[in-house]
Amino acid sequence: MEIIHVSAECYPVAKAGGLGDVVGALPKYQCKAGHVAKVVMPMYRTKFLYDNEWTVDFKGSSNLGNWFFDYTIIKETTNKLGFDLYLVDINGLLDRHRIYGYDDDVERFTAFQIAVVNWMSSWEHKPRVLHCHDYHAGLLPFMMQHCYDYRKLASIPTVLTIHNAQYQGWMGWDQSKYIPRWDLWKRGMLDWNGNINPLASGIKCADKVTTVSHSYMDELRSNSNGLEKLFEYEKGKCVGILNGIDNEVWDPETDKYLDHHFSVATAKTGKQQNKELLCRRFGLDPSKPLFVFIGRLVGEKAADVLPDAIRVAIDHTQGQASFLVLGSGETQVEWQFQQMKEPYADVFNVVIGYDEALSHLMYAGADFLLMPSRVEPCGLNQMYAMRYGTVPIVRSTGGLQDTVTDMGDPGGFGIRFNHANIEDIDYSISRAVSVYQHPAHLDTMRKQMMEIDHSWESVVEAYLKLYRSLR
Ligand SMILES: Nc1ncnc2c1ncn2[C@@H]1O[C@H](COP(=O)(O)OP(=O)(O)O[C@H]2O[C@H](CO)[C@@H](O)[C@H](O)[C@H]2O)[C@@H](O)[C@H]1O
């Protein structure tokens, strides 16, 4: 079957977080399973754009309210990602260096979606399904059903996958002029609490809604940044499908970012070599247990409690554990981490920014990965950590609760806690330090988690089954 994925991110073209990882992998494994999966995304000015060959697939024009624009669809020529990749170029609007964070993001992603439906309506064939990811593609199901110019697309079934319901793409009703001529009786399909809400609209109009773990799907009915009632009402078409990981990209035996590769059998020495490299680079002592955090420094990830929690843990362990943080986000949190660098130089370091290569080395070289997330729809970091033999320390929420078993439970290999506060994080770190003092126990846990199969191969069928169930 033919599946069209529409997303703002796709690794390695453009990635800000886990959305990019999923959209860079799921289509690849759908193609490997014998289907035709394609990805359509905005054309940003990324390294991938300049390093690869492109051909023009289509040129069209449309309008965003009173602003008329031309767009070009370019296609990567070699199928190097394992699926057909199409970029939408809208001059001046999408071709920027960053993916998000501009004042005109509403205009950017609305115009992107208009270009997508405009282009699709020129096709002579119909794909089996249009798979939209997050709010940046959330208006597509509405546009396909209720915009007069795109009614031709109304018979194509749509799936919306929610990777993060915190971000909904809110627009004022004064921006309704951006949406191509639509059936005004359908206002309710755009509105949520007095605003145009692209994520809510996607939930209302898509044939099926998925999210990236079972537990998160349950949680959304009681905690979804204002959409709780909508999730309760639409629960009949909602389903949780746990993400996979791309075992070709995330493989400690072949990882292109690592100098020292290792397998389950050689994990002990392999991890130690990576740890030594990491510790040398960041002025840390490789004989101490190494705790890392990788991610966006935002409230959702409980990054705001981490500086204090780490300080307390350094005190309680009397400097017998090291910490390394990689991330960027809220200025206040970044500043707090920066302030800790000097006084704790021998046990703490931080890199503010985004660094794909360093993240791989951290998964490989660390002993423990901290994920105190308040909200975690699925979480990929803990799955990468497990594959690289790094013990995940996670708050019991969303996908973390679905993928990590506490070492105190039968078959357990990780550490779980309940509250995103200093006490729980500190206590979990002390449990980890105790395990570190029992290398045989640590080795058993490592072996156990490295052998867990979270591959996309094992997940792809769940999506195919969902597509087959559509009208
Ligand atoms: N500074 C940095 N430098 C280098 N790499 C960095 C980085 N910050 C983050 N990353 C990488 O970005 C990815 C983060 O993925 P997550 O799934 O954990 O979170 P995110 O909140 O972005 O994704 C959302 O979507 C995904 C996919 O569905 C869900 O798993 C998740 O719960 C949901 O919040 C990982 O590959 C991580 O290594």
Automatic annotation (TrEMBL):
Residues spanning the signal sequence: none
Residue ranges of every copy of the Glycosyl transferase family domain listed in the record: 281-431
Residues of the Starch synthase catalytic domain: 3-231
GO MF annotations in UniProt: alpha-1,4-glucan glucosyltransferase (ADP-glucose donor) activity; alpha-1,4-glucan glucosyltransferase (UDP-glucose donor) activity
UniProt-listed Enzyme Commission number(s): 2.4.1.21
Keyword Transcription regulation (UniProt): no
Biological processes per GO annotation: glycogen biosynthetic process
Any Pfam family the entry gives: Glyco_transf_5
Entry function: Synthesizes alpha-1,4-glucan chains using ADP-glucose.
Keywords, comma-separated and alphabetical: Glycogen biosynthesis, Glycosyltransferase, Transferase
Name by which UniProt lists this protein: Glycogen synthase
InterPro entries: Glyco_trans_1 (IPR001296), GS/SS (IPR011835), Starch_synth_cat_dom (IPR013534)
Binding-site residues, ADP-alpha-D-glucose: 15
